[in-house]
Amino acid sequence: MSLKDEFATRNFSIYGQWLGILSMILCFALGIANLFNLIGHFLLIIFSIFALISCFLILFVEVPLLLRICPTSAAFDAAIRRVSTNYMRAAAYGIMAVIQWVSLAVATSSLIAAAVVLTFTALCYALAGLKGQAFVGSKTLGGAGVAQMIV
Asked: Which SS3 state, helix, strand or coil, does residue 151 take?
């Protein structure tokens, strides 16, 4: 199944997974950019650190193959594996989005882009849950059997 075929399935968990990858890229780039913002508010640096932490959490949540490759603790693996259903993913992304939305109360910054994409990602996973669609991992990102082959 190609990427085009995956998007044609109209499964919101696929949309959420790809928006999650976009969120990860934005959180990384904007977290670093705002981390070195010397003119901005000091609390903005804390929200930049939250964005960077979110980036690495999203990386492990959305690319399940990394849990097998990277040496992580059993507790971390168990915590990441708990975020496996659409509702849990929607809640996780919702919490990350709220943190970035709160950063706007401190100072207006480019972190609003991360907040918007994280919100859309949470909405896609919530819609997948409400429509009763099972979580389907993209084959491109290591889902649907690839992670099971590497044992």
From this structure: coil
Asked if residues 11 and 136 have their Cβ atoms less than 8 Å apart, the reply is: yes
pLDDT, tens digit, 9 for 90 and up, residues 27-66: 999 999 988 876 767 888 899 999 999 999 999 888 877 7
Does residue 118 surpass a pLDDT of 80? yes
| Cα distance between residue 84 and residue 25, in whole Å | 21
Query: Contacts for 127-133 with beta carbons within 8 Å, 24 or more apart?
Result: 127/12, 128/11, 128/12, 128/13, 128/16, 128/86, 129/85, 129/86, 129/87, 129/90, 131/12, 133/11, 133/12, 133/13, 133/86
Contact (CB, 8 A) for 44 and 106: yes
Per-residue pLDDT for 108 more than 70? yes
